[in-house]
Amino acid sequence: MRYSMVTLVIGALAVTVAHPQVSAAEMLISEAESKLPPGLDSAMATRGITRGPGIELVSPAPGAQNVKSPLPLQLKFVGRNAVPIDTASVKLTYLRIPTVDLTDRVKPHVTKDGIDMPQADVPPGNHLIRIDVKDAEGRSTSTTIMLVVAPK
Fold first, then answer.
1. Which of 35, 51, 73, 83 suits a disulfide with 120, CB 3.0-4.6 Å?
2. pTM for the full predicted model
3. How many CB atoms sit inside 10 A of residue 141's CB?
4. Which one-letter DSSP state was computed for residue 108?
């Protein structure tokens, strides 16, 4: 009896190690939020040279077609002049009327290098998101990204 219990425990452990749990998708945008009216064109005029950090969309690749949810959301922050990113300043806003603050949903995935949310759950459609970030010296940058998600 004791031998079979030990065998059972070792077998369960082997299955757990061989097949680690896949992390569940986390909601980035809800279905209800996606049905809100689209926000106004948020093209931002920039004057002069900005020294604020850069923001680059890594995944899904800009212009990618047929992206399905859940999707990997990866943004890269590029500091300027060796000034680190102020991770507490990172803010994501879903541009709808009214706007939806997505910051709390991505906070666990924010690092000094960017945002890495492996499985962001996003409903099908076109989703315009503004990203705001500052460096440790208070210089800010804002950019918008468009997530185009295909039906499942």
1. 73
2. 0.79
3. 21
4. G
